[in-house]
Protein: LacI family transcriptional regulator
Organism: Gottfriedia luciferensis
Amino acid sequence: MTNINDIARLAGVSVSTVSRVLNNYKYVANDKREAVLKAIEEMNYTPNKNAIDLIRGETRAIGVILPYNNNPAFDQILNGILNKALEKDFLITVLPSNYRKEKEVEYLHKLKSKLYDGIIITSRANDWETIIPFSKYGSIVACEYTQHKEIGCSYLDRYSSYLDAFQLLKNKGHDVVAFTSARLESNSTKQLIDAYIEIFGELQPEYHLSECHCLEDGYEAAKKFMHLHKKPTAIYANGDEVAGGMYLYAKSQQLKIPTDLAIIGQANQPIGIGMGISTVDHQLTKVGEQACSLVIKKSRDKVKIPYQIIERDSV
């Protein structure tokens, strides 16, 4: 089997020169580069990527731990990551976890095995005490705020965004407000509940529904809310697709928006734009782009991405 020693002999150059050509180093004389490339073609040589990575000390590959796909929020983050990776010529591998702790740890061991230069954690099931020891093997960047110095992060101030959204509804005259969330046990849901309590006081359990992910979930959530004895006059949805389902239910019941029911969504997605639904734009694509940049730069910086509330006809 042909190896770089054979290429070096045929090209009349050193093994280190062949290595520099394979790694696309700039500082190789043109005549030597051409000789190496000619020898590679003549011998039909295919470089061993693992060997090149070992020489170069990097794989130019990044793993992205993603709980699940076909989710608008995670799709936006992943889109940002892919944009930046393409720009910088890095390979992205999606590592689906379904919030299984053992899968996350399995993926972190791939970082230890040098299969990736770094890993981006879009959302996690494990605690930081489990994750941090792996940071000595490569860059680990989170898409949430963490104070741990070993972990870089690209994050947004979700709590403040929830406060602003609920305050907007209160300023519009709404005192009976319901809301939805995705995972009940997540940190973002805890922040959502805390923000609600800060603005409206005590939370009655019937005004919060979790496990809402899609348009159908939003439709069913609105149906449940609007069958309560004391109906909410406004609903905060944890995604524009969920908000779209609420909008469709309201229209099916001849409810006027926002007179009978105000709706505010999250993520500034096309469905919300098309339906005229107000939204909290967390700029998740930018979160993903910045997370990828941090891994590429091997940085442990904490980068805050601003959010904005976009008012449309639904409030």
Remarks:
- The longest helix spans residues 72-88.
- The chain has 13 helices and twelve strands.
- The CA atoms of residues 129 and 160 lie 27 Å apart.
